[in-house]
Specification:
Elements: H1 2-15, H2 50-59, H3 78-96, H4 102-143
Keywords: Membrane, Signal, Transmembrane, Transmembrane helix
Region (Disordered): 33-72
Biased composition (Polar residues): 34-55
Length: 145
């Protein structure tokens, strides 16, 4: 029995490296023809005449230029705020039941499921609220005709 196990282990050790791939061949790929060349200069360039440049110099001395107003910064927070809040929530839910073993993982899963259900219920309530408001407005408008 020992000799059979030793032979099987030896065969497995010899055949184990046969499944690994050490390198990747990328010789078969060929990219298409370039359609844009950024090194070429534009073909329709015009050089201004000296007479053309002096035309506006005398007429536009007293005009003021208005700078466009800058856009208001976004208050939603965006992607990075979502990552921050999600990471903090993950740390909270992950370490809340961390010392309980498998039961902690089950409780963490239940809390995450409750959070997802709460978000879905909240979205549904908002949708139904606006739908009933529209129906009430239509009902009032039918009697005002």
């Amino acid at each position: 029995m020992k000799k059979l196990i030793m032979m099987l282990v030896a065969v497995m050790l010899v055949l184990a490296p046969a499944g690994f791939t050490d390198h990747a061949d990328a010789k078969g790929y060929k990219s298409g023809k370039k359609s844009f060349n950024s090194n070429t200069a534009p073909t329709n360039t015009q050089t201004p005449n000296k007479a053309d440049s002096n035309v506006n110099a005398s007429t536009n001395k007293n005009t003021t230029t208005n700078t466009p107003a800058t856009a208001a910064p976004s208050k939603s927070g965006g992607f990075m705020k979502g990552l921050l809040v999600g990471g903090l929530a993950g740390l909270l839910f992950g370490s809340l039941f961390g010392d309980m073993g498998a039961l902690g993982a089950i409780f963490g899963f239940l809390i995450n499921m409750l959070a997802i259900v709460a978000v879905i219920v909240l979205i549904r309530k908002i949708f139904v609220y606006f739908k009933t408001q529209r129906a009430k407005k239509q009902e009032l408008n039918t009697w005002k005709r």
